[in-house]
Design a protein that fits this description.
The chain is mainly beta. The protein has a single domain, classed as Rieske Iron-sulfur Protein (3-layer Sandwich), CATH 2.102.10. The protein is built from one helix and twelve strands; from the N terminus they run αββββββββββββ. It has one helix spanning 2-20; strands spanning 36-38, 41-42, 45-49, 58-62, 70-76, 79-84, 94-96, 101-103, 109-110, 116-118, 130-133, 136-140. A four-stranded mixed sheet has the order 1-4-5-6, with no helix packed on it. Strands 2-3-12-11 form a four-stranded antiparallel sheet, with no helix packed on it. Strands 7-8-9-10 form a four-stranded antiparallel sheet, with no helix packed on it. The chain is globular, with a radius of gyration of 15 Å. The chain binds FE2/S2 (inorganic) cluster. FE2/S2 (inorganic) cluster binds at residues 87, 89-90, 92, 103, 105-108, 120-121.
């Protein structure tokens, strides 16, 4: 299963590159251009400096051990949402577009709050609890 996910990521990376040349325009919504913040999980907590959100409200957070990217969005000065980009249908990686989150495996679509808009997924995305301490956004992943 892990091998399939890596191959799919490679496919999307290649596909998104081709969109830049206008070859696969239909996939454009699937390819996010959000910056990736790489970090780690420490004692069940993922830490992100608040300065990461000074100029942009959205980050893709990638931490070894989580297995899926996390879409983090700043909603207000001290308010954030964090969604695990793992499809609730069959555990596929999700792609965050500008207005929605899509699964390229069977076509499920989620809104930016993680609610299902289109199945076959029937369950909303997992939200990670967030809190702020010492100029850092902390996500709880346990
Ligand atoms: S795995 Fe995402 S829709 Fe099936």
């Amino acid at each position: 299963m892990e091998k399939k996910r890596i191959a799919r990521k490679d496919f999307l990376k290649t596909s998104c590159s081709l969109i830049g040349f206008g070859v696969l325009a239909g996939l454009a919504e699937s390819c996010s251009s959000y910056k990736v913040f790489k970090t780690k999980v420490s004692d069940g907590t993922i830490s992100i400096p608040l300065s990461e959100f000074a100029l942009e409200e959205v980050r893709i957070v990638r931490a070894p051990g989580v297995g899926y990217d996390i879409l983090v969005r700043k909603m207000g000065p001290t308010s954030f949402t964090a969604l695990l980009l793992r499809c609730t249908h069959q555990d596929w990686d999700l792609q965050a577009g500008k207005t929605q989150i899509k699964c390229t495996n069977h076509g499920s679509v989620f809104d930016w709050m993680g609610n299902v808009k289109t199945g076959p997924a029937a369950t909303r995305l997992r939200s990670l609890p967030t809190r702020i301490e010492n100029e850092k956004l902390l996500l709880t992943y346990a």
